[in-house]
Design goal:
This protein is mainly alpha-helical and about 120 residues long. It has helices spanning about 20-30, 80-120, and strands at about 60, 75.
């Protein structure tokens, strides 16, 4: 049985993290940060002092490079601090995913239009 909690990583990003990530993440959160956010000091699994919601510590890559796992590049952050750290990157990712959806929609609409024109000309 594994005592380390599973950390939510998007399936498409799993290959970016090393196999020992859960151990490294655990050491950063519990060993180095002593179960507290390294930015605001919120305690893990306790209500956040500002939001009142339960804190879940996660490990952030300061330079946003998931392959750079040097200790000085990793920081234990609460949900609030991690979200504010990643906000620009997340917005960029959401826009990128939305653009892909839009292109697929347009492509499918064009195919449908062409097939209708063939039927009409038929």
């Amino acid at each position: 049985m594994d005592i380390l909690p599973k950390m939510p990583i998007r399936p498409e990003n799993k290959k970016k993290y090393p196999k020992y990530w859960k151990y490294l993440s655990f050491w950063i959160r519990v060993g180095r940060a002593k179960n507290k956010c390294e930015k605001c000091g919120a305690r893990n699994h306790k209500p956040h002092p500002k939001t009142g919601r339960k804190v879940t510590l996660t490990v952030a890559h300061i330079d946003f490079n998931e392959k750079n796992n040097k200790l000085r590049n990793l920081k234990a952050l609460c949900n609030k601090c991690h979200n504010s750290h990643d906000v620009r990157k997340r917005i960029k990712g959401m826009k990128k995913r939305e653009a892909v959806k839009r292109r697929k929609y347009v492509k499918n609409a064009e195919k449908a239009w062409k097939s209708r024109r063939r039927i009409i000309k038929g």
